[in-house]
Write a structure and sequence with these properties.
- With about 250 residues, this protein is mainly alpha-helical.
- The chain contains 10 helices and 3 strands, in the order H-H-E-H-H-E-E-H-H-H-H-H-H.
- A 3-stranded antiparallel beta sheet has the order 1-3-2.
């Protein structure tokens, strides 16, 4: 039963699925833009996705007009989109020289994971206190199964997608938009480093076991155990990623 005055977990998850889709850029199909706001959003989503997909790699630099030409848009919505992406830490604007995609250093990743560990552990604790139903927990278990199947098929891209789906679904169940927006921005900054190191690491077999343990703690209604398990999960992943960056001599990505 939800606390008095609180939103049911199922309604909350639905609302936050929509929020996540908006933050993540939604469908890759281009929708007709309506007015200036629609063009700004179109430019923002397109440039953001190209940064995350490494189409615009770290250090990539272009003038506003070059971004605009590539997107077949005018400079005004592109300029506003670039300002938004600068605020999110994905690029920096250089007066009279356009914009540069910012690299993520090992030091950045250490700090990002420290904050992610704290925020996502809190989200896991919130979910546990909400007492989600078996149906609401089903997507978490399904994501863990998808991770197992992806490893069996030696499909690391599918594994990464299932892993991200697990973490996103859990965050949505927490039902806190501010928390979700903050974590999403940190995920975006860490995404490139995660994908670069994905094929440099041993098979990620620990994550699925840890995910299952987290789900069991949620199901048991033990918020302290859930937060502890989630914190340990993120800390281990952070240590692995930073060690890979160091071994590979990658000061930044």
């Amino acid at each position: 039963m939800s606390a008095p005055g609180s939103m049911p977990a199922s309604a909350s998850a639905s609302a936050f699925t929509r929020a996540a889709a908006e933050l993540a850029g939604g469908s890759t199909s281009r929708q007709p833009a309506v007015g200036k706001g629609g063009l700004v959003e179109q430019a923002y989503r397109s440039i953001r996705q190209r940064i995350l997909d490494n189409v615009y790699p770290a250090g990539y630099r272009a003038l506003e007009q070059e971004f605009a030409d590539g997107l077949k848009l005018s400079r005004t919505p592109v300029r506003e989109a670039l300002l938004r992406l600068q605020a999110e830490g994905l690029l920096e604007l250089i007066p009279r020289h356009g914009a540069r995609v910012l690299p993520v250093s090992a030091g950045d990743m250490r700090e990002i994971y420290e904050v992610l560990t704290a925020l996502e552990s809190m989200a896991a604790e919130i979910v546990t206190r909400r007492k989600p139903t078996a149906a609401e927990l089903k997507p978490l278990s399904a994501a863990s199964r998808d991770m197992i199947n992806a490893l069996k098929a030696d499909d690391l891209d599918a594994w990464a997608q299932a892993d991200e789906h697990f973490h996103r679904q859990l965050l949505e169940l927490a039902g806190n938009t501010v928390l979700m927006q903050t974590v999403q921005q940190l995920w975006d900054r860490a995404h490139r480093a995660r994908m670069v190191t994905l094929r440099l690491r041993p098979p990620p077999v620990h994550s699925t076991r840890e995910h299952n343990a987290i789900v069991e703690a949620i199901r048991a209604g033990d918020p302290e155990a859930t937060a502890r398990l989630y914190r340990a999960h993120r800390q281990r992943a952070s240590m692995e990623l930073l060690a890979i960056l160091e071994r590979a001599g990658l000061g930044s990505v």
